[in-house]
Amino acid sequence: MESEAMPGSRLYVRGEQRRYRVANADEIIEAARTVAGQRMQRGESFTDPQASSRFFQDKLAGLEREVFAAVFLDTRHRLIEYVELFQGTIDGAEVHPREVARQALRCNAAAVIVSHNHPSGTTDPSAADRAVTARLRQALALVDVRLLDHIIVGGAKSMSMAERGWA
Fold first, then answer.
1. Beta strand 146-154 with 79-87: parallel, antiparallel or unpaired?
2. Is the dihedral of CA 20, 26, 32, 34 positive or negative?
3. 42-160 is a CATH 3.30.450.20 domain
4. Left (φ > 0), alpha (ψ -120 to 50) or beta: where does 144 sit?
5. Residues 32-58: b if buried by 16+ CB within 10 A, e if exposed
6. Domain residue extents for the chain
7. What is the pLDDT of residue 6?
8. Can you tell me the distance from the alpha carbon of 89 to that of 141, in angstroms, rounded to the nearest whole number?
9. Pairing state of beta strands 67-73 and 111-117?
10. What are the tens digits of pLDDT across the range 15-31?
11. Distances 57 to 70, 102, 115, 136 between C-alpha atoms, Å
12. Nearest CA-CA partner of 121 in 76, 159, 72
């Protein structure tokens, strides 16, 4: 990540002996994810689909494995909590609707937006993506929690299943 042409562009982290050293790529990505998490704090509103997509892009883009995450929201669609619920392989993650519903109840959430990344970079939903969205909607409805959207992140792009009428 460090550029020979621009030596002043190096990023540093504090090491174990409290001295600064040049950060590696993984440390830079982790720091960026921390900053992205701070951008949307508890109480921030998730009423804008583009803001929701940007939030999940910041969190999930560039991961080597598929990660299924969710934001749990109150009745006014304000953030209660962000949770990475399931991790998978390079082309899939097993999603358990029961666990999503359990987490929603634990947070006392009124609504949920779920998202997962496609490490391949594509944002096209698979048949499995559409099926799990339907199962999640049904499971969450049983406990009076609304599934607002399912966002698929592929690299620097994202796709809202709600905008296509699939969530």
1. unpaired
2. negative
3. no
4. left
5. ebeebeeebeeeeebeebeebbbbbbb
6. 9-39, 42-160
7. 47
8. 29
9. antiparallel
10. 777 777 787 777 766 76
11. 13, 25, 9, 21
12. 159
DSSP, collapsed to helix, strand or coil, labels residue 149 as strand
Query: Quick one: which of 1, 104, 103, 114 has its CA closest to 62?
Result: 1
SS3 assignment for 75-112: CCCEEEEEEEEEECECCECCCCHHHHHHHHHHHCCCEE
Give whole-number Cα distances, 83 to 60, 80, 165, in Å.
12, 10, 25
Tens of pLDDT, residue by residue over 144-159, are: 999 999 999 998 899 9
Q: Which two tokens stand for residue 107?
A: 């947070």
The C-alpha atoms of residue 56 and residue 67 are separated, in whole angstroms, by 11
| Lookup: tokens for 123 | 């944002």
Place of tokens 């990475």: 84
Tokens (6 digits) for 146: 């609304």
| Measured distance CA(79)–CA(70) in Å, rounded | 10
Residue 40 has pLDDT above 70, yes or no: no
Helix, strand or coil for residue 139?
helix
46-88 per-position pLDDT tens digit: 888 888 999 999 999 989 999 999 999 999 999 999 999 999 9
